Amino acid sequence: MTPLLLALQGNDPMAGRLTAALSAEAGAAIVRRFPDGESYVRVESAVQGRQVAVVRTLDRPDDKLVSLLLLAAAARESGAASVGLIAPYLAYKRQDVRFRPGETVSARHLAAWLSSGID
User: Fold this and answer.
1) pLDDT at residue 72 greater than cutoff 90
2) Can you give the pLDDT at residue 92?
3) Cα separation of 88 and 80, whole Å?
4) Which of 36, 41, 67, 71 lies 20 to 30 Å (CA to CA) from residue 27?
């Protein structure tokens, strides 16, 4: 079965090139914000039994992580066989060790959050 790529906002050009290079299909999803800033996400493509990859760069990650995780969850809940992530920039990697007392190792936490919903 042909893999499906779901591009989040601003990632369409990259997803188009990847779709062609991987002989994949471009999927459709709706992602918007409610007036209070919460994200609304809906997968519009058939994902049942398919390998799905979400395409999203994670620069300015605080604005992008929630919709990414919700889209991955929506794909999985809709029956995707697997959900991957194509992220040319993966945020929070600079804090991979604790440099000072009281700091968190953000790279470890981001990896755990992503791993909770993405294969």
Assistant:
1) yes
2) 86
3) 22
4) 36
Q: What is the pTM of this model?
A: 0.91
Tell me which residue range forms the domain holding 70.
4-117
**What sign results for the dihedral spanned by CA atoms 68, 118, 52, 54?**
positive
Number of domains in the chain: 1
Instruction: Report the SS3 class of residue 18.
Output: helix
Q: At 82, give phi and psi (nearest 5°).
A: -155, 155
Check pLDDT > 90 for residue 96: no
pLDDT of residue 97 exceeding 90, the answer is: no
- Asked if residues 91 and 111 have their Cβ atoms less than 8 Å apart, the reply is no
Per-residue buried b or exposed e for 6-20, using 16+ beta carbons within 10 Å of the residue's own CB: bbbeebeebbeebbe
